[in-house]
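Review form for a predicted model. The reviewer records the input and the model, then writes brief findings.
Reviewer: anonymous (R2)
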Amino acid sequence: MQRKLPAAALAGLMTIGFLATPATATPTESATGQPAGTTAECTSANFADNQAGSQYFEHVRWMQCSGITTGYADNTYRKGTDIDRGESMAFVYRYLNEDFTPGEASFPDAPAGSTHFEAIEWGAAEEITTGYEDGTFQPERAVERGEFASFLYRALDPELEATDVSFPDVAESNTHHDAIIWLASEGISTGYKDGNFKAKDPITRGEVAALMSRLDSVINPEEPEAPQDRFDLQAHRGGQGLYTESTPEAFAHALELGVSTLELDTQVTADGAVVVTHDRQITTDDCRDTAPATPEDPQYPYVGKYITDLTLDQVQTLECGYQQDPKYPGQVVVTGPMMELDEVFEVVREYGADEVMLNIETKVEAGAPEETAPRETFVRAVLAEILKHGMEDQVMIQSFDWGALELVEELAPTLPRSALTNGDFLQVGQPGASPWLGGLDADDFDGDLVAMAQELGVEVISPVHGNPQDGAIGDEGYVPYVNQTMVDDAHAAGINVVPWTVDDPGTMEYLMDFGVDGIITDYPDRLRQVMQDRGLDLPQAAG
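Model under review:
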């Protein structure tokens, strides 16, 4: 029997991609015949390629814990893999927990005993699919977006109401027109930024997990998990309040202490190397010259130069971290050359910190682009290092330069992105668009950070906690930037909020009361204490 769900029951779903169905799994048993829900407790180990904090993590975890998928034999889920027709039908079947006994095979290429036979026969019996004109089902063929729209539409059989929603590439004569318009009108899928739906495009397994879990949360509403239950403790530059910033020792200490994310900054040298440092211009506050990279190097001394104008060999002659930062009186001083990005990856691997995320900032200087590597050069260099070292499942890209985030979406669409802002870079009320916003004009959004983030399509916003940046709740003249409305609006849009850089425990408490999803801090030890006092689960120490 098909389930008739009113269209209103599906309203409010947030769009990430498109609903489809992952691979071989054991169906969840249900005495009620209701859609499978998340189990109260899940003891299965995460898929090897679905670590905490990675894109689609919670959605894939829900699929796994609900018994909808057991993944592949090598314990992977393969979020970026296109899904086939047999898998799609199996996942809809398993999710709905249909009680069905198949008869003779309806399709010669899906005989009795074949993978997904029962689900395919159920789909045929319910007229969710009739196969192809030649009588075949083609279970291993990739599912198209429009095709799966129809699978889902026919399985749920909702009431389609009149709507003004349309896509220029979906004509009324399109076989999947009604299904696609239903998805769009309910907010399940709004198509692409260019306004098209691309019904012939395939669907990935990560997109599937996201939309199936969100569909379930609407059909089977439960009390939502409080953001604090999965609070993201991010060590700013490795925790520069405790160790010299951006050093192997700082990152190692943060891992030993126990953090969920290492936050770090990158710059790109003249010869394309990715180094880990906050400042685009070398200053005596952080580094000092030792010797020229080559005899009589005309660029020497290097202090005062921009990193984009120096080679890696020149940069690595510098002695960095040679003195304590006076802002951090307890900081342990560690001296050495400027790190490369791959060295951070090495530290993470040495500690076996597979569940720790790296929040990597591309520090493109949109306000003075000549002072950093060109945006595309910068982004491509960082992404190349991530992919070269197989770290894509543990990485998020953040940037104040939202144009860089748009380029990341184009070049590496599975990487999660975080939109940084200090508020001022939005340039609200000023003529024209800010150079920091990737072509968006804040005034077109009434200065609403969340609305702009929705347009940008990011998973996280990372605003300054307040001004002045080194201020705290209770200080005279301190003005908070993050507020309850911002957090509520972001969560309603499916966007996490992770303010920076918060070192005062009272301000941490203030922000956590709003329900922020994480905090970037120079003092991960302080934030751990606040989390412990609030009864939150602490990130495990690595090593």
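Findings: The two ends are 53 Å apart (CA to CA).
Further findings: Residues 1-40, 224-228 have pLDDT under 50 and may be disordered.
Recommendation: see findings above.
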